[in-house]
Amino acid sequence: MSADRAAAAADTARGTAVPPSPGIEAAWAHPLLGRLLRGQRDRRRLDRRYPWLFDTAVVLAVVCVSLPDLLWGGGNSPFGDADTRDRLPSFVPFAFTVALAVPLWWRRRAPAVAFFVIGLVSLAQWSLGLWLPAGIAALIALYTLARRGSLRVLGLAVGVTAAGLILAVCFLVPVEHPLLGVFFLLGTVTAATATGLTLRIREMYLAALEDRARRLEIEHEQRVRLTAAAERSRVAREMHDIVGHNLSVMVSVADGAATLAANRNERSAEALRILGDTGRQAMSELRRVLGVLREERDDERALGPQPGIRDLDPLLTRVRAAGLKVTYRTVGDLDALGDGVQLTVYRIVQEALTNTLKHAGTGSAAEVCVAAGAGTVRIRVADTGTPPGAPAGPAHPGPTGPSGPGASGHGLVGIRQRAAMFGGTVTLGPRDTGHGWLVDVVLDAPPSTAPPAPGEPLS
After folding, report:
1. Between 411 and 439, where is the model more confident?
2. Rounded Cα gap, residues 376 and 445, in angstroms
3. Read out DSSP for 224-263?
4. Confidence category of residue 201, pLDDT binned at 50, 70, 90
5. Which fold, 308-459?
6. N or C terminus of the chain: which is more exposed, having fewer CB within 10 Å?
7. Which residues of the chain does CATH 3.30.565.10 include?
């Protein structure tokens, strides 16, 4: 392998884009090549607008090539012997010339029909012993068939043409050197067919390149849309986890303070009640905005800085300040967990406690336990439910609650989606004691997770 090929292979392996070759730009800048390319582009544009114009020009060109021989020809065939036109009426060569040239006007719209019509006319003129310059129309028709027609019909046309030429040279038209005539005529047939096939393959290659460019453009647009959707989903999730949680804490604190102020007959009770109502309205508006941002696709990548295990203490402090009694314990070496796992643990605990505040109220109590085991991490959040005598809040979301199957609650859906990213299992539902709610999630920790330290197993 040469050094250039090795460098190209290395660039491909690294995914590095190789700069395009400057050959096309150099060709357009060249005085002669640039003029040819621009002329070809202009001819294609003119042909697309007036296709009949080029077909008419081809017919007139064949007629013009034939006129000198028709008007001042000596009656000799191209292979040395005199043909038989002197024994025929004078209008016969003109009629055959017109019959050979006119079908070329339809050669691009019906290449097979035009070729076989010209072939029959050529066979008729050969049977009369004539060689006319207009016979070049058969080569033009064969070239058009090779470029635009059916390949199966092309094979039949080439075979028929070769057989007809051999028949004409050997039996129909007097030729002084038949072998030379067959070699020359078959060579022109081969050249016409090869030229048509070459240009046909070139057009197919250019069409494939254009199709590939279109597909790459579509894939780029789709990639941009997917990236935007993923970013919207990430923003929606973070707003729900952070802003929604903080609003829930603020509403709970305001409601508790309003109740306490009302019991003390303080004038601030009404202001605190308005504050709680305003917070609930803000949460409703937040859910509406997140409903616009959120999509089915919810691919998320951890972007630093993100909260982790160490940030659970400040989180629990805020929850306790809202009036919820929380006990917290850990098992194992949680600091050895990866950043993604720590973020998932934090969000699951945050969402579970937010649901407890929302549905059980500040009079409830919750137990939070995070344990690192052999290749797994378990998050268990259990609350005691609404205390006796307290006003009942909305039912906990779950299989029979507002966020069960078919519901639109995003909190528990987010827990399931986060757990699914690490191959986890989620258990949601009422506790076995008959009161309270349980969120139990088991995640598959990355291989780098350290072995758990001795500790109390989860019950």
Report:
1. 439
2. 5
3. HHHHHHHHHHHHHHHIIIIIHHHHHHHHHHHHHHHHHHHH
4. very high
5. Heat Shock Protein 90 (3.30.565)
6. C
7. 308-459
Tell which residue, 451, 452, 355, 447, has the closest CA to residue 403: 355
Strands 425-430 and 376-383: unpaired
* Cβ proximity of 290 and 239 under 8 Å: yes
For a pLDDT cut of 70, what percent of the chain falls above it? 75
Q: Which two tokens stand for residue 168?
A: 């004409």
How many angstroms separate the CA atoms of 348 and 274, rounded? 30
Residue 302 near residue 234 (C-beta atoms within 8 A): no
**What does the pLDDT read at residue 299?**
42
354 vs 365: CA distance, rounded Å = 13
436: left (phi over 0), alpha (psi -120 to 50) or beta: left
Residue appearing with tokens 């001795």: 454
CA distance 161 to 122: 10
**87-117 per-position pLDDT tens digit:** 778 788 888 889 999 999 998 889 999 999 9
Phi and psi of 175, rounded to 5°? Answer: -130, 135
pTM of the model as a whole: 0.46
